[in-house]
Specification:
Layout (H helix, E strand, L loop, with lengths): L1 E5 L7 H16 L3 E3 L9 E4 L5 H8 L6 E6 L16 E5 L14 E4 L16 E6 L6 H14 L5 E4 L12 E4 L5 H6 L1 E6 L2 H8 L4 E5 L2 E5 L5 H6 L16 H12 L9 H27 L14 E6 L2 E6 L5 E5 L1 H11 L10 H9 L5
Parallel strand pairs: 1-2, 1-3, 3-4, 4-5, 5-6, 7-8, 7-10, 8-9, 10-11
Antiparallel strand pairs: 11-12, 13-14, 14-15
Helix pairs in contact: 3-7
Length: 372
Amino acid sequence: MKLLIVSDSLKMNFKESVLSNTLMYILNQRNIEYTFDKEDNEFDGILLVNWDSLTVVKNIKQTKNIPVILICYKSDMAAFYTIDLEMINHVVIIRDTDIDLQIPYPSITTEIPVPFVFSPAAKQMTKQYDICVCTGSKLFEPNVLFKMLRCLNQLSAYKILINTTIDLQNIVNSHIIVNDNLSEINTRIQQCKLVIGSGYPIMYAIENDIPAIIVGERGYGGILAKEHLSLQYSAFFQGRIGGKYDSPIPEHLLYEDVISIMQSNIILDSVKKPMNVLLNINSNNLVKLITKLVDMFININRGFTDLKFNNDFIINAKQGRYWLINRFTRQIVAELDEFYYKKILEYKNKTQHVNEEDVDILKQLLENAILI
């Protein structure tokens, strides 16, 4: 099996770049061949990493009958409603936020925790800063930072680095440095003794065995420890477990936890090994999903009797005309002729039988995720 990874490196943001690199690491670890060369005609499936490359995928799909798997962050799901998903066979949603969103095509959508791969050997760098602050937040970053600012300004005994594109220069004390180059987050974290934040910065802290305090969109998560590691990872380290969005961040708790760690008043066990176990399970599940979808298309000429109708759609028949409609958005996806209607109805009613002349039609229905 060989995969084509489609991404536009010039248009990718920090998170999309991390995701693209992570996918490469995961595939390399499992000896799955991949390419970025769109002119290479030997690939069996496409992994689409960012929305801007949809046109490229559409052009490829016109000449090759292969599955396309869109991999995107949940925080970017608003775009899901406005793009043409006709050429997408499956969507893998990366849970970087646990916000509750209605998904237009749940039957072809799988949600997983954020995949990540630790580097074989973390770099040992000189500690230039005491504390690195980076929320990694998308929805409420200004709120999170401003809630912490009074506490950070009071921690004048420590050299603090805040990573953000928000202009804070005029409201921070001299012991605080503001860095707006977010592509260097991992390097900056390696140069610090303590990380305060959420999302990827916490993951980098774990990778480098640096203590971390979770502060994010869902409030104050406290000092990262083994006891709540799995739950925090599932929510991608966004604050208090079970907290609501824009939750409070108690200044006194943050201050006390920082002092406890910086003065070595508490002994923290490394969470890197248990975190690595969770990451490996997630990576294996992702590869199994990709392999299953691609294999289904490689073996597309097998019997089609084990397919089923995608219940994300409904069929509307009236006065000899037939429409395929999205169950959730009520969008009319296509008008069907009578033969397509009857064939889909067989699968909907689980009375399907497959003749040789049906194969091309069934391939079409499978390609468009009407049958799954």
